[in-house]
């Protein structure tokens, strides 16, 4: 079985900017440079032959290159407490269009379409119950922005879960038109 997802790897200068914002929240499990990505579609556990079909389907996608930029820091909450800190992305439309193409391609490979609304973001940290307040971080870095950066490809990743956190490896890179 392979645990797969499709994502964009931000350029080094954007990853460095994101890494510089991290810290100051007790109990947060911060992402490392190798873990920073912008998810286009989480696939989950699949058999090897399904992974091969997904790879072939993704290779048939045509989508123009585009530019995006960082746009603020926020969090996903569960039961009134932040559980994930993330950096937002603007504009969202080219990402949503690419997400839809990827979702359709993966469905043709036999994986059920994603039913959740797509919100483009880059995860910065996961927070456990009892983690420190995120208020100071949001006050300091919540207005995070960047110059636009080019998106010229997306990747199929495999995720390996370890006690120290997830380890991601790029299976294949797909160039945009």
UniProtKB/TrEMBL annotation:
Chain location of the short sequence motif HXTX 1 per the record: 37-40
Any matching Pfam family: 2_5_RNA_ligase2
Catalytic activity as recorded in UniProt: a 3'-end 2',3'-cyclophospho-ribonucleotide-RNA + H2O = a 3'-end 2'-phospho-ribonucleotide-RNA + H(+)
Alphabetic keyword roster: Hydrolase
InterPro entries attached to this UniProt entry: Cyclic_Pdiesterase, RNA_CPDase
UniProt-recorded Gene Ontology molecular function terms: 2',3'-cyclic-nucleotide 3'-phosphodiesterase activity; RNA 2',3'-cyclic 3'-phosphodiesterase activity
Enzyme Commission number: 3.1.4.58
Enzyme superclass (EC): hydrolase
Location of the active site: 37, 121
Keyword Hydrolase among UniProt keywords: yes
Motif HXTX 2, residue range(s) on this chain: 121-124
Family statement: Belongs to the 2H phosphoesterase superfamily. ThpR family.
Role according to the record: Hydrolyzes RNA 2',3'-cyclic phosphodiester to an RNA 2'-phosphomonoester.
HAMAP family: RNA_CPDase
Name the UniProt record assigns to this protein: RNA 2',3'-cyclic phosphodiesterase
Organism this protein belongs to: Allosphingosinicella humi
Lineage of the organism: Bacteria, Pseudomonadati, Pseudomonadota, Alphaproteobacteria, Sphingomonadales
Gene: thpR
